[in-house]
Specification:
alpha+beta, 6 helices
């Protein structure tokens, strides 16, 4: 059981299109000075940061963009410091969080008070029909977009890794990605992925699916 306090202070990394789920991994290349400072601070403390998406078109000129309410806490695992001050790292997802309030801080990076959401101790399992539908739609989608996929490796993934992995890498827009993050369980998330892939397939030539 995670003994981290339920409410916690988090440094957050607002990045559109980047999702992280508990138990999954997210590689990042950090180059902006404020986020390099955030990583240095995190490495000196508990190695945690909060991944969160900014809300599209919700900031005023000169003000930082508003944030979605739900994100994911990641712990820095693999870490490489590059000579010019940049970092390559891999985050491991720990738990989803809900922002309670943004804190007034003097750091260049943003910080929030957040409520950590519970993580199920048991692995979630898809129904056989949903797993079959997801794999079939994923093949159709990949073929239509010209993606090269190792389908043998895909079939070996457990249900959570399959669903959450697709949600992380799929080329959907910010609102669609956020809907996937906030879906209640992998069964609902898988169904939403299928719907989004079908929608995307009917909009050839567009760069991304939009729910806005």
């Amino acid at each position: 059981m995670n003994d981290t306090p339920r409410n916690t202070r988090l440094s957050v990394f607002p990045l559109a299109g980047a999702l992280l789920f508990p138990g999954m991994h997210l590689p990042l290349h950090i180059f902006e000075p404020r986020y390099r400072a955030m990583i240095s601070d995190s490495m000196a403390r508990d190695r945690r940061i909060g991944m969160i998406q900014p809300r599209p078109n919700m900031g005023t000129r000169g003000e930082p963009p508003a944030l979605f309410d739900i994100g994911c806490v990641g712990k820095i695992g693999e870490f490489e410091a590059i000579e010019d001050g940049r970092y390559n790292l891999v985050l491991e997802g720990l738990s989803l969080f809900r922002i309670i309030r943004e804190l007034d801080v003097t750091t260049a990076f943003r910080q929030v008070e957040a409520e950590l959401l519970p993580v199920s101790a048991e692995a979630e399992i898809l129904s056989l029909s949903r797993r079959s539908s997801l794999e079939m739609e994923s093949r159709r989608f990949a073929d239509s977009q010209g993606y090269a996929v190792d389908w043998e490796a895909v079939t070996r993934l457990d249900d959570e890794a399959l669903v959450n992995g697709i949600a992380q890498i799929a080329p959907f827009d910010v609102a669609a990605k956020q809907a996937l993050l906030e879906a209640q369980g992998i069964e609902d998330r898988a169904e939403l992925i299928i719907q989004l892939m079908q929608f995307f397939g009917r909009h050839d030539g567009e760069d991304s699916v939009t729910l806005q």
